[in-house]
C-alpha cells in the first residue's frame, strides 16, 4: 500500500498564510482541488463532493473569499488549496477564472484535481466506480435536431466548425498513469443498497463491484438520460477520436478551458465517481429512472464520494511529498 501523507494546518501556519496574503506575497499553489458542490457544512454532516477533501487537508484552514468565486478558497501549509466551484459549466468556470486571476495565489506550477460525482453507462461502469478522465469532451458544441427530423436511426448531432480548440482536451497521459498507478491498490467502499440496485441491470459491468477505471468524461449542462442520449455521447467520443465515454458530468471541459488559457492542460486530472447510471434498467422507462418512486433510487452515494478522495489523495500526497521531482512536471516513469 502506498503511504499516504495527511497534511494539515497549525494555528501558526494559518497566521503565516494570513500574513503572506496581507504582505502581498501570493500563496504558491502546488495542488488545487476543485469540487462542484457541498450538501451542507464542510464537515460533520452528510458529505457532498468537498467534505472528504476538506477533512483531509483543511480542517484548520481559514477560508479566503475571492471576488467572483462561488465559495471561499482553503489552503494548507504544504500548498494544497481547494474550493467548491459551483455546478454547471458557466458557474464552475467563472469561479475557476476568478481564483486563477486573484493575486493572492500563484498557480504557475500548480496541479489541478477536478473532482466530483457523475453518471456512467451500465455497459461500461457501475455505482461506486472512480474514473480518471483521459479525454474531456464538450457534449454541447454542435448542432442537434429532433430524431423525427432526420434519417431514421441516424445520429442527431453534428459538430460545428470553429469549436475545435476547446470542445476536446486530451489530458496528460503521464499524469493519468501516475494517478492510476497510485490508486491501484486502494480499497473502495461499497454498500448493500448499491449491490442490490446493480442487479436491476443485466450488464456485467453494471453488476460488478466498484473499481478504478479510465475513459472519456463527457461535459454537458444537460443532465441527459436514456440509452439514446448515452449512445449519442459514445458517438461524439468516437467522432472526436477520444476514448470510450465513461462519465457524464457538467463542468470539467469548461474548467479545463479556463486553466488552459492561463497555464495549459498538462497538470489537470479529472476524477469522477459514478453515483448513478445514465439510463434506466430494461424494466423502467427513462422518465421512471429520472423520477423514481420512494425507495427506488440508487444507493452508494456516501460510499462513492469517499471513494473519490481515497483514489485521488495518493496522487496529491505524492506530488507534495516529492515536490522537487514534480515541480517541473510529472516524472517520466511511474514508480510505486
TrEMBL record:
Pfam families in the cross-refs: NUP
Top-level taxon of origin: Bacteria
Protein name (Swiss-Prot/TrEMBL): Purine-nucleoside phosphorylase
Amino acid at each position: 500500500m502506498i503511504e499516504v501523507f495527511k497534511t494539515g494546518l497549525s494555528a501558526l501556519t494559518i497566521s503565516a498564510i494570513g500574513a503572506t496574503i496581507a504582505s502581498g506575497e501570493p500563496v504558491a499553489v502546488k495542488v488545487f482541488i476543485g469540487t462542484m458542490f457541498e450538501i451542507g457544512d464542510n464537515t460533520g454532516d452528510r458529505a457532498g463532493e468537498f467534505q472528504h477533501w476538506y477533512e483531509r487537508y483543511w480542517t484548520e484552514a481559514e477560508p479566503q473569499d475571492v471576488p467572483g468565486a462561488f465559495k471561499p478558497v482553503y489552503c494548507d501549509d504544504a500548498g494544497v488549496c481547494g474550493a467548491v466551484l459551483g455546478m454547471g459549466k458557466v458557474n464552475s468556470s467563472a469561479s475557476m477564472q476568478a481564483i486563477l486571476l486573484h493575486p493572492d495565489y500563484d498557480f504557475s506550477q500548480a496541479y489541478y484535481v477536478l473532482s466530483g460525482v457523475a453518471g456512467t453507462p451500465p455497459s461500461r461502469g457501475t455505482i461506486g466506480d472512480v474514473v480518471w478522465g483521459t479525454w474531456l469532451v464538450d457534449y454541447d458544441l454542435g448542432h442537434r435536431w429532433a430524431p423525427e427530423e432526420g434519417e431514421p436511426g441516424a445520429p442527431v448531432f453534428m459538430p460545428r466548425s470553429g469549436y475545435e480548440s476547446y470542445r476536446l482536451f486530451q489530458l496528460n497521459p503521464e499524469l493519468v498513469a501516475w494517478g492510476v498507478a497510485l490508486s491501484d491498490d486502494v480499497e473502495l467502499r461499497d454498500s448493500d443498497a448499491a449491490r442490490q440496485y446493480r442487479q436491476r441491470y443485466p450488464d456485467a459491468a453494471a453488476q460488478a463491484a466498484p473499481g478504478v477505471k479510465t475513459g472519456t468524461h463527457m461535459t454537458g449542462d444537460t443532465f441527459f438520460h436514456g440509452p439514446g442520449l448515452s449512445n449519442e455521447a459514445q458517438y461524439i467520443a468516437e467522432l472526436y477520436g477520444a476514448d470510450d465515454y465513461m462519465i457524464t458530468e457538467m463542468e470539467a471541459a469548461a474548467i479545463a478551458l479556463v486553466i488552459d488559457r492561463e497555464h495549459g492542460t498538462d497538470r489537470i486530472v479529472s476524477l469522477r465517481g459514478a453515483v448513478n447510471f445514465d439510463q434506466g434498467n430494461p424494466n423502467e422507462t427513462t422518465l421512471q429512472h429520472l423520477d423514481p418512486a420512494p425507495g427506488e433510487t440508487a444507493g452508494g452515494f456516501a460510499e462513492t464520494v469517499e471513494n473519490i478522495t481515497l483514489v485521488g489523495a495518493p496522487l496529491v500526497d505524492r506530488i507534495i511529498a516529492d515536490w522537487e521531482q514534480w515541480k517541473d512536471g510529472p516524472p517520466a516513469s511511474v514508480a510505486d
